[in-house]
Amino acid sequence: MKKKLPSLLVGMVIASVTFVFSQITRAECDPMNVRQIIEDGGWTFKAETNENGEGVFKITSDGITASVLVERDGDAEFIAYYVDNGLSRQEAFEWINEASYRLNYVQMWLDKEDDLAVMYSVAEWNNVCPSNFNDQIKLYFSLMKSVGELHPANKM
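Above: the chain sequence. Below: its structure as tokens.
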């Protein structure tokens, strides 16, 4: 039994490596396909590819520019900033708390310059480009608008 244990362990390692490699090679979201989806949606954008072959897009709507990273497996991460929001740190934290309470889907924090970062992530479980990417873009800008409406200056 002791002699079978090392060979069983080696077999498990080989199977694990094979599975992981097959999942990595299944990642099929080409940035050019994402670019076409954004273009077809009529968005104003700039596109590039990072060192990992992932699509990095700057998409603008109603004066807000979001940076969007679309990974090769189709996962997407949206982020934009409210710069010079005119609030003290305490007021900004209250804004974050209020928005976080009302909007469960966004992550918010103050960066080093005290600008408010708003991030939204979408997981694509099928390792393909998201077919509903334009809807994701619309949702993100809708969330940004909602965060802006919760700014303390808008409550007066």
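Helices lie at 4-25, 31-40, 89-102, 133-149.
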